[in-house]
Design a protein that fits this description.
The protein is an alpha+beta fold. The protein has a domain of about 100 residues. About 25% of the residues lie in helices and about 35% in strands. It contains four helices and seven strands. It has a five-stranded antiparallel β-sheet with strand order 3-4-5-6-7. A hairpin with an 8-residue loop joins strand 6 and strand 7. The chain starts with a helix and ends with a helix.
Amino acid sequence: MFRLIAVLILLNILATESSSAAILIEEKGQSLNQNRFPMSSSSGLDLRRNRKVGIGIAGAGVWGSLGTQLELNLSSRLSLAGGVGLGEGYKSFALQLRKYLSGESFLPYIAGGFARWYTTGKGMTQTEHSNPSLLAERFLSSHEKNTGQ
């Protein structure tokens, strides 16, 4: 899992650095570059319209203590995000559908999706109590309580 996160961080760094590089070719004072994607955008929604894929790092969220995510922009206001994460004694994965609200440089969004957190088997002990206890009673089976899963 740590290798996966390290590779995704490296890819994120390389993608950021390579996007600012350009090969300049001129002929008779005219640029021959066919730059379909501008390097700057006037707003966040404009950037999402030009860039269809994003990769990022998340902390203390749906992906756990540390996670990475991949976001596919279906339109400037709608995207699908998926990711994996980890924490001490557990791993997680999640999928989200995000609807972005209007904005210029700050883009708030609402999201709905699915997340699954599971133990990695390290330090598994019997679950004696949970806070609030209603959650353990309602969502954990007796086997899960006894094994700490």
